[in-house]
Amino acid sequence: MIDSAGLAAFVQKYYIDPIIYDTSYNPVDTITWAIILGLAIIGLLKLLGRLNILMDERLLLSTLPYIFAGSSLRVVEDANLALAPWRYLLITPLIFFLVFFITAAFLIISRKIWGEKFHAKYAAIGFLWTGCNLAVLSTVGLQNPWVIAAVFLLGTALAGGILFCGQHLSALSLPALKFLDERFNQMIIYAHMLDASSTYIGVDWFSYYEKHVVPTFFINLVGTAAIMFPIKLLVLLPVLYLIDKSIQEPSLRNLTRLALITLGLAPAVRNTLRLALGV
Predict the structure, then answer these.
(1) Cα distance between residue 246 and residue 27, in whole Å
(2) Omega of the bond leading into 230 within 30 degrees of 0 (cis)
(3) How much is the pLDDT for 25?
(4) pTM for the complete prediction?
(5) How far apart (Å, rounded) are the C-alpha atoms in residues 17 and 260?
(6) Are the beta carbons of 56 and 255 closer than 8 angstroms?
(7) Contact partners, residue 75, CB within 8 Å, separation at least 6
(8) Which tens digit of pLDDT belongs to each residue from 255-274?
(9) What proportions of the chain, in percent to the nearest 5, are helix, strand and coil?
(10) Quick check: 22 pLDDT over 90?
(11) How confident is the prediction for the chain on average, in pLDDT?
(12) Region 181-195 average pLDDT
């Protein structure tokens, strides 16, 4: 049986220290945050229902600016522009909760003020927040501005090639790939190819390191972060297929898609900004 001292040491080692020292993830906290993400999706869906807010395609698109806001806010901590203890709120996973609650607050406020026509104003607030973060980061100065173009071009080329091949295979002989015609599934593929591109450039070209447990294992196994491209596809394609086939409720399907976009786009933006700023 684990006593209180043992439990405290366990929590300190696997949850608190990785936040305080901003170190790599471990199997324990990785599984924990994955479970919390699943519960958060269910909880958010119920909250939206109570507030009579439909999780439709408009709301999904209007929430995308908050991904940029959260990612750029994370880089504020990377650039050492925030001091303790406030900086701990900007370290993963605490920043996820911070951005979640701020985004939810802006969503509720926008809905109450502008009624059914809140989407554009809600999105504008997210862009304004992003702009404020970028203004703070501008004090650091760009060290490697070419990285932004490199990540964008590599991610765009790969995503475009994957979607082009998938759609043609779907039309010819593999109708199971028909889900690649859906624009939000295309956005998910694109977001994760940008993430893989930023990881590849950061690890292989700048000697950065991957923090997540599973990607680290495969990168160390093959000796290059280029392995992230096939790994992303091996995971994403079956998941997207199952979402389209298994989740019939539109709000839950859109919210799940938003979560997948966030899991790709958020680290892609953060990684790219860090590399460009040289932090």
Answers:
(1) 28
(2) no
(3) 62
(4) 0.88
(5) 27
(6) no
(7) 133, 137, 270, 273, 274, 277, 279
(8) 889 999 999 999 999 999 99
(9) 80, 0, 20
(10) no
(11) 87
(12) 94
Ranges of each domain in the chain = 29-140, 143-279
The Cα 129–Cα 90 span in angstroms is 15
SS (H, E, C) 36-75: HHHHHHHHHHHHHHHCCCCCCHHHHHHHHHHHHHHHHHHH
Q: Residue with structure tokens 């096939």?
A: 230
CA gap 185, 257 in Å, rounded: 7
Amino acid at 152: F
What 3-state class would DSSP assign to 141?
coil
pLDDT class of 228 with cuts at 50, 70, 90: very high
Cα 126 to Cα 72, 107, 260, distances in angstroms:
12, 10, 19
**Cα(169)–Cα(181) distance, rounded to whole angstroms?**
11
Q: Is residue 95 a contact partner of residue 74, using CB atoms and an 8 Å limit?
A: yes
Residues 98, 89: contact at Cβ < 8 Å? yes
Q: What is the spatial distance between Cα 108 and Cα 128, in angstroms, rounded to a whole number? A: 17
